[in-house]
Amino acid sequence: MELYATGHNPWNQLQFDGSKAEEEPEDICNFTKVLSDDNAQVTSIRAFPSYTLVFNQSTITQHPDLSSLLSSLPPNETFTLPGTLTQLIPFETGFAALLNSPSSAPPPPPSFGSLSATEVYTWGDDRFLPTLAREPTTSSPASCPGLVTYLQDLPTGPVTQIAAGGYLLAALTAGNDLYCWGHAGRSPVAQYLSLSDVPEPVIIGDDIEIVDMAVGMSHMIVLTTDGEVYVIGSNTNGQLGLSDTEIAKEWTRVDVPSCEGRIRGVAAGPKASFFWT
């Protein structure tokens, strides 16, 4: 296994070799190998500034702030979702959840085998409705999980993965199609992709299919079925791995360094990006 990283590094957060840290380390502006272990594999990367997720079957308890949680005060909200929770992710003004649908939900098309039908729910601040991809109602207000109907019955199968960062959200289908939505006034990537407030398919190039994706505060990274890495968005801290570019307003393929094995996945922090073999 090899892990490569690029981006924001003021506290040596991209340094894993145990060497003595510099007093004022510089950001990393190209994908650089930061970890190697022949006897291990990457299972997940969780790079974020500060938030807490607690998984408890499909019941979500939401606290107003961290001090309330640490003080053992009762939560201000408790939600029971109609299915098995597989992902729970935050964005700037809310949350999104991916669920395996209850057995009563229609199955995915036969071409996708035994994959379960899935549902995406969003909730958060109603002042930023484009991030929710749904219209709040009295029975389903913005502050409570609500179903994103636009991500049901998609032509390339059920949603298998969701990601979010800043004011941008993304979903990946079983057939390797990418859907994105967000607040164009707040998210530069949403603006560059001309996104609306409902999930829309994102085309990176002819015959390019996506197997993994991740979203930072103002950038996005994807991995294609051919093992290539594409990025878009801000590069102010080197998070795109493009040393000669300040910003990429279109999808740009990264010339990744020679590495052992095939690239297996990508991840993103607020101002950093990762891939591993």
Automatic annotation (TrEMBL):
This is E3 ubiquitin-protein ligase HERC2. It comes from the Eukaryota. Gene3D superfamilies: Regulator of chromosome condensation 1/beta-lactamase-inhibitor protein II. The lineage of its organism: Eukaryota, Fungi, Dikarya, Ascomycota, Pezizomycotina. PROSITE patterns: RCC1_3. It comes from Podospora australis. RCC repeats lie at residues 118-175, 176-226, 227-277.
